[in-house]
Amino acid sequence: MPTLSQVRQSNGTLGASRREMVAVFVGGTSGIGEATAKQLARAVPKPTIHLVGRNPAAGSRILEELRAANPDGSFSFVQSDVSLLRNVDKACAEIREKEKHIDLLFMSTGHLAMSRKDTPEGLENNHVLRYYARMRFIQNLLPLLNASPTPARVITILGGGQEGQIDEDNFDLSKSWTFLKSTTYAATLNSLAVEHLAAAHPSISFIHVFPGLVRSPLMNSTFGKLAGSVMGVLSRPFSLSLEESGQRNLFIATSAAYPPAGLEGKEDADVGVKLGEGVSTAVASTGKKGGGSYILGYEGNDATNKKLMADYRGRDFPGKVWRHTAETFRRVLGSE
Known about the structure:
Elements: H1 4-17, E1 20-26, H2 31-43, E2 46-53, H3 56-69, E3 74-79, H4 85-98, E4 104-107, H5 125-146, E5 153-157, H6 179-200, E6 205-209, H7 218-223, H8 225-235, H9 242-254, H10 268-271, E7 293-296, H11 306-314, H12 317-333
Parallel strand pairs: 1-2, 1-4, 2-3, 4-5, 5-6, 6-7
Helix pairs in contact: 1-9, 2-3, 2-9, 4-5, 5-6, 6-12
């Protein structure tokens, strides 16, 4: 696994190889998404960053900070409540009007929901944020990701390595919902979808990351300001700062360590920032080195539960999950 020093060294050379980069951050107006967007803005000479979020005040603040950090960059805010899939479609349409290609799609929406809440579209709110909305962004933006002049990457920040047992008749959690099930199902569906998508689109890297315990606003929003502050203090010795989290995520988003499946054997420069001393190409969730689908811990290390994922793969769960997802889109939106 790359050390923090190796991460910073790689990020420090990013600008020399990538003068421009187009990135979309879904959930980019706070926490991990915001921190990673800021690292990208500092590292790339002429970045284009689209932040998708609900809060226009937070969006405006971050845009000002990004412009101050890099006056040569282009930054925009797309206001959208992506707990509704129809809003995801509108946000994607707005992005497609502005861009011909996308190099990075980074998604970190969702929270720790202690109770079930359904949306007007008939889906569980947080399950949409942590799974369905993310997959709809991918599906809608695939043409732009495929058009990237360098291999694009899709990163979903949630629960890489935290997968568990799920039932195929309860993918949408409509038959049974508990807090533990909601977290397990979201993590597992993301990992299975990553495998399916990497196989179907071998020119793109698909990565599911567990971010670790990060000192972010999520604690306050979940447990309340007082309890969240106390937990933040108690967890400080073994948690990550937002800055370090952003640095590590930028490495995962740009290093040649995570190539797409279709570029096996290519030179580092063709797939990302050249590997530094001591850093090697990652092993994909399928067990293949450089296989295109990656389940990672926060340090960028392989976190795949190999036995569990092999069992799911043997029962065609990656395909079943994606067929269910496409059917859900048809049912809710009337189209794929």
